Amino acid sequence: MNTxxxxxxxxAMAATLFFLVKGIIxxxxxxxxxxxxxxxxxxGRRQNKAMQGRILFQxxxxxxxxxxxxxxx
Length: 73
Hints:
Layout: H1 2-28, H2 32-36, H3 42-72
Helix pairs in contact: 1-3
């Protein structure tokens, strides 16, 4: 049981890292039109989606850590 939880934890951590890097890359690609509001704000929506994904997988990782701690006691 703990082996499965550890594998799921590693997967959640990898997904968190993926969404973090994706958000940083999207942030670095922000154009001046995005910042001034003269263009469509696609970059902002992508940044928000990346942040939501990161927060989701961080929460999943925390729940898995709690499950590991509960199962080992």
